[in-house]
Amino acid sequence: MYEIRHAGAKGLGVFATKCIPTGTRIMAEKATLAVASEGQVFAASRALSDADKKRLMQLSISPVRRSSVLSWTEAAWHSTRQALSDVFNVSQRDGKAVARLPDLKTIAEYPTILSIFRNNNFDIGNGRQAVFDQICRHNHACVPKAQGNFNTTIGCFTIHAIQPIDADEEITLSYLVEHGALRESRQSRLREHYGFLCDCPACDITSKRGKDGEQRRRQMQMKLHAFAEEAAEREHPNVEAELVVMRELIQLYEAEGISGRELSTLYLTAADLAAKAGVKEEALRFSENGLRIDKDCVGTDSSMFHESLARVRAIGAML
Ligand SMILES: C[S@@+](CC[C@H](N)C(=O)[O-])C[C@H]1O[C@@H](n2cnc3c(N)ncnc32)[C@H](O)[C@@H]1O
Hints:
Largest sheet: 3 strands, antiparallel
Shape: globular
Oligomer: single chain
Number of domains: 2
CATH superfamily of the largest domain: SET domain
Helix content: 40-55%
Strand order of the largest sheet: 3-8-7
Bound molecules: S-adenosylmethionine
Structural class: mainly alpha
Number of helices: 12
Mean pLDDT: 89
Number of strands: 8
């Protein structure tokens, strides 16, 4: 249902080859390389098979990072540290074996490997980051068509359509953690981490869509701030007031086209508040919406979906 092809100035991208309905699992892929910290990238890359290493080296590098951030000093530091830890581990194991020191070619390509890692890694939970062969070809959009989540049941990172996708349309993900952020903050994070300026419809503030979106996001921020300040001053939670804010936030998110687990979380929080406030019908409706969106984002085989299901059951028990 997809193909990887050129996406203009963005490099390669992933495109739908037919209409993809919301909730479809577009990809499920095992990591080529997964680490708990950047310091482990060098060792992990050395452990790859030739075929995996070749695929890793074909992923994209940010021009910004290649030239200014990564240096030979960094490469030398990581490789020396790795060499020392190899010697230490091997001599720990059998007392006499000689560790294989990295050759010059391996050290020379390390800045490239680290650049590739930084430009392509996804959070897979438990403090680990991973790169993937095909999933890493998805480009960013601030209001994306798809979402990626790690599925521990199948040990794969999955990509699900969170909006209907037309044939030939690009399948995009958001690289950002906070989806309701204002344009300036989104742009500066993307520039700093990936070296590009986003020109997605939400970032084009010369258009009505972009201007309206920015206004909605400003409202989201204001509501969240006002709410946090008020909550900090209160001794007991004001369930009704929290519910009002949640309803407004849901409306703003939906109007902006932000879907995915950000929205299901809002719905489930609102369902919980509605149940506590004794607004039964709304609690049921919000629970249903939250669970449906979650199912669309991760699938019923995901532990994330089962956690939400347990939450909905707990809400049901309050009614
Ligand atoms: C994870 S890779 C995505 C796939 C990449 N385009 C490729 O050719 O393999 C991230 C890189 O893609 C490019 N990119 C992603 N989204 C973009 C966007 N909205 N505008 C411009 N460049 C983008 C940037 O160079 C970024 O550093």
